[in-house]
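Usage

Read records sequentially. Each one opens with the input sequence:
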Amino acid sequence: MKIVVTGGLGYIGSHTVVELQLLGYEVIIIDNCSNSSTEVLKGITAITGVTPHFEEFDLRDLAKIQDFFKRHTDIAGLIHFAASKAVSESVEDPLLYYENNVTTLIYVLKELQKLKNAAFIFSSSCTVYGQAENLPITENTPIKSSKSPYGKTKQIGEEIIKDTCKISNAINAISLRYFNPIGAHPSAEIGELPLGVPVNLVPFITQTALGLREELAVFGDDYPTKDGTAIRDYIHVVDLAKAHIIALEHLLNNKNKSNYEVFNIGSGTGTSVLQVIKTFEKITNRPLNYKIVARRKGDITTAYADTSKANITLGWTAESSLEEALENAWKWEQKIRKA
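and closes with the structure output:
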C-alpha cells in the first residue's frame, strides 16, 4: 500500500517512515525542509534498506498539492505531520502558525476527499486540553481555549477534520493527541535535529552536555509541583511512531467504530523538568550547567496522559522508559557531533 507522510523528514515523521517501511509499505514523503534536511533520507535508508520517494514542496502551494494528487491516485492513507510546532514561536508569530497549520490541512483534506477511500492520521497534541483540571488527561477531558496559537491550531485542525468526516464518506480519520516525544532511533541513524537553538527540553540538554550550549534554561521553578518545575509526559519517539502505524492499520482494516476517532498517546507518567535533568545526569555521568529563568508564555503547569483508550482499542502501549529515551537521545547527539 502507498502511504503519504507529510513532514516525513521531520523528527516524528522520519521515525514513522522507518516503521512503515519496515512493515513493507511504500512511502512517499512530502516536506519543504523548513525545519528538516534531506540528509535524513540517508538515515532512513540505512535503517530500512529502502530509500523512500521524496518530493520537496510547501503544502501552502495549492497548485503543487493538486498536481501531486493527480499523479498519485492510488494512495491508501496519509499521515499528516507537516506543521510549525513551537509554542513560544507561535505566541510571537501567530499568523505564521494559522497559515502553516490550518491552511495546509484544508488543502490536503480537499484532495483526499476526491479519493474513493482514504485513511487519514492527524498529528494532534495534548495542548488541545490546555491546563486540565483533573489528571491524568483522558480523551473526555474538556477542551479549553489553548494558551498558545500552536495549541489553537491543533484544536481548530481537529474540528475541521471532524466536520469534514461528518459529510464525507471518502475519509476515515484519527487524531492522535500526543504528549512530549523524546529520544532517537536506537541505531542513532535518525533523531531530533532542530535547526538553530532548540525549543524542546531534551535536545537542549544533550547540546548543553556536549558544550554546544553554555547553559540550559529551566523555565520557571515556581509552579505548584513537588520541585517547582513543570511536569510533562515524555514518550519515546519510536513508541510514538509505532502508534501511528497501529492507528493507520486500525483504519485500513476497517476496525474503526466511526469515521473519526481520537486517542491520547503518551507514557502515562508525569515527569518534571528537573527530574529529566537529574535522570540524564545519572545515566551519562555528566553534570549539566542549568539556570532557572522566568516562565515561558503559553506554558502550562502539568500534563500527563491516560492512555487506556489507545491500549484497549488500538492494542498499543508505550514500551520504552525515560532512561532508554535519554540514552538514545545522547547516543544520537554524540554521533551527529562526532563527539
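Summary fields computed downstream for this record:
- The CA atoms of residues 21 and 50 lie 7 Å apart.
- The chain has a mean pLDDT of 96.
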